Amino acid sequence: MRVGVVGAGISGLSTVHELAAREAEVVAFEAREEPGGIVRSWRMNGHLVELGPQRLRLTPGIESLVDELDLREELRFGDDDQPLYIYHDGQLRVVPLSVREAITTDLISPLGKLRILAEPLTGPAREGETVDDFLVRRFGKQAARRYMGPLYSGLYGTDPREMLMEYSLGRALDSAGVDRSLLVWVLRRLIDGRETPPICTFEEGLGTLTTALYEAHADAISLDTPVTAIEPAGEGYDLQTDTGTEHVDEVVVTTPAATSADLLDPVDSDLAATLRRFNYNPIAMVFLESDYDREGIGALVPSGGELPISGSTWNASFLHREGLFTCYVDPNSYPAMPESTDEELGQVAAEAFEELSGASATPIGVHRWDPGMPAYDGSWTAMDDLSTPDGIHFCTNFVGRAGIPGRIRSAKGIVGSILGD
Ligand SMILES: Cc1cc2nc3c(=O)[nH]c(=O)nc-3n(C[C@H](O)[C@H](O)[C@H](O)COP(=O)(O)OP(=O)(O)OC[C@H]3O[C@@H](n4cnc5c(N)ncnc54)[C@H](O)[C@@H]3O)c2cc1C
């Protein structure tokens, strides 16, 4: 069994790692000169910035990877107990993530809080229901629009009114094991004392994890070698690159949907057409320097025009990265984002941050992701038409869960199915 892996972001690297651990033969190709994909840690103006994910949760899967790669000494923990804020009506308000915060927050009126308690009496998701419709029906308008919707949809850059339950939040709730009532599920976890895994990163940033994975398997991974096509050949497939052809029995594709479509066109043009339907939203990360000293993990800004950013992460506070704040700008929060220059985006984000925090801020850099996050919008009905040929496997955000822990779990599952578990 020889497996080919296309892409060496966290999905591709975890797939290679898992295959190698199980002594399967593997060959992987990465288009860029560096491994890691969206996970990238850089130095900017003396600050360690994360171009993609800002932090991790130390789930059991990540913890065992950290130990296998001997990275425990590099691990750094964030301050979990700091509040997360929502910018609502011109002020920062605490997002109720604990019982104490739920009682004390001024984000929701006393009547709005009472309305949340009625959630167990409401019915399950209905066919065709949007995330916004579902949350409003279950928790009332205030909780749905002021924090639950933005909390879920914020990073994807999609308005909750455009997200269908069945293809987005519904799937996340199912995989978390939420059967009927989300409120009862949360209370049960609180009573059981089940804790959310701690926030962590590494001394030199999250890129430490992907670099270590690459270094452990460098002999199997060709960097700076984009796959140009996947072609059927005999019982398996040929992976075409500018440097030659590699024959494999099975292929794990980890690239975003549009790239996967181009690569798989020679295998199945209908599959390629389906893949081209999935929308992604671009996102710009704007890095700011500020001496703002309020404690917090960050602030979400619900869509609706109050500020032209979708949120900010306060790296300075909960990760102790002095003076560093990261703002997110996407077309949902700032429609002119795609055509704006980096300088304009820096200015827009700095002004929004100043408005939100009351502290001055200076932009030190901008990084754009396009494609950025899967939109999980109405285009996800394409999932219903997605059928993969034998020997082709998708280990990607668009079919599985986004996020580093989810990607690692998905790689393990796919390797298990390839090796016939
Ligand atoms: C802005 C942002 C913030 C995020 N924040 C968090 C967070 O805080 N916590 C968290 O857990 N998750 C976060 N995520 C999600 C997480 O980063 C992603 O789910 C994950 O990194 C995706 O990894 P991947 O390997 O599936 O895809 P990618 O990282 O996109 O990897 C795909 C790889 O394929 C390569 N490639 C492309 N074309 C070819 C080709 N033709 N041949 C060979 N290789 C090719 C690419 O260069 C890339 O390296 C965030 C994502 C974004 C965009």
Query: Quick check: average pLDDT?
Result: 94
Principal-axis shape: globular
Topology, number of strands? 20
Q: What is the CATH C-level name of the largest domain?
A: Alpha Beta
**Content of β-strand:** 15-25%
According to CATH, the homologous superfamily of the largest domain is FAD/NAD(P)-binding domain
Q: In the CATH hierarchy, what is the architecture of the largest domain at level 2?
A: 3-Layer(bba) Sandwich
Side-by-side strand order of the widest sheet? 8-7-16-17-18-15-19
Count of the domains: 3
| Spans of at least 5 consecutive residues with low confidence | none
CATH topology name of the largest domain, in short, is FAD/NAD(P)-binding domain
Radius of gyration: 22 Å
Helix count, per DSSP?
14
Oligomer class: single chain
What's the N-to-C terminus distance?
14 Å
Q: Strand count, sense and closure of the main sheet?
A: 7 strands, mixed
The hetero compounds bound to this protein are: flavin-adenine dinucleotide
The assigned structural class equals alpha/beta
Helical proportion?
25-40%
